[in-house]
Each structure stands twice: as structure tokens, then as C-alpha cells.
Specification:
The chain has 103 residues and is α+β, with helices and mostly antiparallel strands. The protein contains 3 helices and 4 strands, in the order βαββαβα. Strands 1-4-2-3 form a 4-stranded antiparallel sheet, with helices on one face. α1 packs antiparallel against α2.
Amino acid sequence: MKKTFKLTHEKIAPARLVEAIKHEVKKYIKRERNKPLPQDADFWDFDCRFGADQENSVVIHVAEIDKAISQAEADNLESFYLEIVAKPGHRQKRVEAIEEELE
């Protein structure tokens, strides 16, 4: 999903727009996570970018999307850009577990 969301509407309150956007994002992530995984993948990972526009967007973690949208509302932005790209993820061993195995 690569989309610019508008936070202004002549008939809909900004708070309702924000709720609708958050719902759309959660629905998209859920839909992507329910897709079948490739053979070598453990889970679906997401590359996310957020900003006032596409050129000024920065990388964020998927868990920070709601906070970023709320911050955009608090900053009275008229619109913001959100990019969420699903990719297969691979689990990695924790450093602590690796150190225990070596001992």
C-alpha cells in the first residue's frame, strides 16, 4: 500500500477520518498476514514509511503507524503519505541463546 491520506473533508470530522484511516491500515495488514507464506519464510514482515509527502517520508516500524497517524492529526496536517510493503521475514536467534549454546 502506497497512499496519500487526506485529513480534511468538508462533511467528515478529522477525528472520524483518522479512525477510518487506522481501520483501513489494520485491515490491510491483516489481509497481508493471512496470505500464504513462501516455503522459506517464517512470517510476513513489513517495510513502512511515513511522512507529510512521499519525498519527505521516513522509515518507521509497523507498530508505530498508529502513533504517527495520531501525531499527524495533532500537527494539523492536511494529508500524509503512508507506505506499507509486505515481505517474507525470517526469524533470527537471539544473541543470548547463541552465547548459551557456545558455552
